[in-house]
Amino acid sequence: MIIFKYKDELDEDSVRAAALLCVILGVSTFISHSLVPLLVLLCDNIVSFFLTPKHSFLTRFSKITILPIANFRTKKISANAKHFALLLAIITESIIILFLFNGYILFANTLLFFLIFFALTETFLKFCIGYYIFNILSLKGFINEELSDDCLLSFNHNH
Q1: C-beta separation of 76 from 28 below 8 A
Q2: Rg, C-alpha atoms of the chain
Q3: Contacts of the segment 87-96: beta carbons below 8 A, 24+ positions apart
Q4: Is there a contact between 6 and 73 (Cβ–Cβ < 8 Å)?
Q5: 53-87 pLDDT tens trace
Q6: What digits encode the pLDDT tens for the residues 7-56?
Q7: In this predicted structure, what is the pLDDT of residue 94?
């Protein structure tokens, strides 16, 4: 059983802006087949996961550059679900880097396409795959978490 105990909450603005930067870095990796943008994204996600997202340089950069341009609505989301989504992103990015490093470009491009697609859905459609996977696993008892009840209630009202 996995236990998530993060207490801080994130605003949806910074999450969606960071997802848009994930799209930009993913597309640049997809076009150039360079590991540098993906390594930057992986390091930033690791910093966000082990520290708080307030220490993330991509989140800070996106708050300065993207948030004044985009008109995202502010809504608090559970930090537990976001940290679980970050864990899924770290695993996916690590697998993509291993595929690119070993020369499996087709597999890496396929996974990178899905990573870009999921970041786009999070940015523009407000649909986070990791959030729903986290809620399904927590409702089934695979994850023991200390969430506020509004996270689980919002999941129950959506389905």
Answers
A1: no
A2: 16
A3: 87/49, 87/130, 88/129, 88/130, 88/133, 89/22, 89/45, 89/115, 89/130, 90/42, 90/45, 90/46, 90/49, 93/38, 93/41, 93/42, 93/45, 94/42, 96/29, 96/38
A4: no
A5: 666 777 777 777 766 666 655 555 566 667 777 77
A6: 455 566 666 777 777 788 888 887 887 788 888 888 887 777 777 666 67
A7: 85
CB 100 within 8 A of CB 149: no
Tell me the torsion sign for CA atoms 135, 81, 118, 46.
negative
Distance (Å, whole) CA 64 – CA 54 = 13
Query: If pLDDT is split at 50, 70 and 90, which confidence band does 97 have?
Result: confident
Q: Which residue has the tokens 């689980």?
A: 152
Residue 69 domain boundaries: 8-158
Distance CA 76, CA 121 (A): 18
- The CA distance from 66 to 58, in Å, is 11
* 128 lies in some domain: yes
Q: Domain for residue 36, yes or no?
A: yes
Number of structural domains found in the chain: 1
